[in-house]
Amino acid sequence: MMKMNIAEIIVDIPNAQVNRPFYYAIPTHLSNQVKKGSRVFVPFGTRLVQGIVISINIETAYSGKIREITSVLDDEPVLSEELLKLGEWMANHYFTFKTYVYEAMLPNALKSTYTKIFDWTQNPLDEALNLPKTFKQAEKDGTLKQLLDLNKEGWVKLFTKVEDQKHIKKQLFIRPTQSFNTYIKILEELAPRYRAQKRLIQALIDIVQSKHVKEMAQVDLIKTYDLSTAVIKKAAEKEWVTLFEKEVYRDPYKHYNGEIEQPFQLTEQQQKAFLPVKKALDTNQSIPFLLHGVTGSGKTELYLQWIQIVLKQNKTALMLVPEIALTPQMTQRFKRRFGNEVAVLHSGLSNGERFDEWRKISRGEAKVVVGARSSIFAPLKDIGIIILDEEHEASYQQSVNPHYHARDIALWRSRYHQCPVILGSATPSLESRARALKGVYHYLELTKRPTSYQLPKIELVDMRNEVMASSGHFSRALKTAIETRLNKQEQIVLLLNRRGYSSYVQCRTCGYVDMCPNCDISLTLHASDQSMKCHYCGHTTPIKRTCPSCQSKKMRTVGAGTQQIEKEIEQYFPSARTIRMDVDTTRRKGQHETLLKQFEAGEADILLGTQMIAKGLDYPNVTLVGVINADTSLNLPDFRAYEQTYQLLTQVSGRAGRGEKAGQVIIQTYNPDHYTIQTVKNQDYEGFFKREMHLRHQGDYPPYYYMTKLTISCPDESMALKEGYRIKKMIEQAKGNQTIVLGPSPQSVARINRVYYYQILVKYKELGGLDQILDEIAFSSQKHARKKLFIDIERNPQQFV
Ligand code: ADP
Ligand code: ZN
Ligand code: ZN
Fold this sequence. Notes:
By secondary structure, this protein is an alpha/beta fold. It is built from 22 helices and 36 strands. It has 6 domains: 2-110, PriA, 3(prime) DNA-binding domain (GIY-YIG endonuclease); 113-163, no CATH class; 170-247, Arc Repressor Mutant, subunit A (Orthogonal Bundle); 264-446, Rossmann fold (3-Layer(aba) Sandwich); 457-501 and 560-695, Rossmann fold, CATH 3.40.50; 706-795, Alpha-Beta Plaits (2-Layer Sandwich).
């Protein structure tokens, strides 16, 4: 064996038959640039693909033909030693491919695109075909078949072009070349009619005199001093200034210049929770903590103060929130405490903005990262603390392959960096609470709000008694409460629980429901554009006024949407100003934040919305929270349906009474005696936990059992089912005792977009030898790709509907 200039590379082809690296030679002219963690282009088959270098200068006995790396895409490696190692662990742990995992870690801007292109192999046969053109264009303009034929005959070639998407933004900058005195002289000598030039010289004098500013972006200079590019060009010719290009960041928070806020004096209870973590920070211990604090108890204040310590140690901090775009207040608090040391990553950023934030982090220019799920891979060095706020949220698990959970990754990185992890929540997941009981997590508790603020009082309204008396969807109690608050000019939050609930159209005469032709689900009414839409495949049709089955004209809407509730508000509370927040009103970038700002500024009395308003809002003038329908989510076919209902109702209740004024919560329900609703009313998490754990125990569900879900999908239903039984047999042969295999059974929506889905659930106490079988199944699935038969494996699945 000899040491050679060879690199091991994970190529960007998920369909490669094996989950292993490929060997490539490092050409001499690239030997300084190819590093561990670099992105490269390499030849694979007949085309170029992107790859990640996972090791270099390796020893190998491999004697086959070795091809050369074509090019290196970045000056510095994009994946650190740590993230490369983490990727290996993830691929194993989640039964998936390394290439998926590394892709999940990197910002979109670092993913290459592949385009299929037709071109002539020799002289053009037919100029009218307009080659080269892409496969997609050919599909569109109807020449695809002709081109494929020409391809067979050898006239036309079809190849894949790979392109790096990365775009580093550069701007033109201007720097003065002369001294203050010279500029004064130029200014005096310029004839009065050269007004623009005089303004430019004045600008240059300002810069020369300034202590901080040495140069200015051309765009800013032009705006501030009312100049034109022509004037600047002329000045450059006269050598009054130099022009040069400089890398700049696309910064979504550029205009943030809020004042820095000082930490609060911690309450006694906060102090008690604060100290154990401080100790772990001082002694570099990777301890996981569960911070269980009621809504508004000051969890965020603790996060901020722990991070303060970490920054003093010259380390970095990683703070995860379920969806940062939904919580502009959180971002603001972090910016106010730590200013420009904060980088914010969230789904609302453009690819370019996100990439720039990522680079700032990677270069050590930002030391605190606040972001959603995928930020768990932020390229921070020397991490001192990792925090998951609202740790119970299902969105911390990625719903597509790789199905990683941010909590697992947080724990892994905390061991790597020897730093504590904080899992914070007012309503911890049952798994985490159970782990804290067993001592796996260190338990910290905040039972009250700081200062004199009280948790709100929660009342239930039994909607069964309101059938005749209610005003639309408003019970008498909720209606009166809203009127009272409106009179006092206090604010109201109204939740329409959309989980397990949608509006559809049904024929009153024969019961016909408008179903999606591609999926086994009814179409949802969208009042905004008067259409019926499938939420799974996007199929859209006009609303039917006549029943296609019995020709009756009695088609009626079942289930209320936010728009209908908004209309009812107008009807029953004509003076109220309402802001409606749902997918329709928040689709555009930044709309969410704008609406919340309006509400915060008191421009509306009522904030009406879906789940998205339940979290994170902290407005002292909100004194009433109303839940229109508590129980739509109770009966979903998901063993976590009660848990998620408990969490949602508790979260939204927590929006009331966050200031001097006491808060009130009114929950409308058809199941007032259900223990989920009762424990929400009594703000009794432990009571809920006990009841729910009992149920999970009886049903052999998590946290008593681990669970892994295998989903087999195929447009051919019998093939999916056959594969399901084959897999089941494989698992049953390998399983130990205390393992239960359920299925294959149809998924809750069994057909989506004309593809059939079957599920197998494996419940187990210990994985034992099962992991090898699952690996085998995951990789065998590649063989079926041609038949469009896919197997997806999800460990600890979070959502079943
Ligand atoms: P949580 O994250 O648990 O919802 P927050 O940290 O947002 O709670 O705190 C709720 C409110 O109480 C915030 O307005 C916060 O500024 C305030 N607060 C937190 N800790 C203190 C404290 N020790 N003294 C005074 N006010 C505090
Ligand atoms: Zn009908
Ligand atoms: Zn559909």
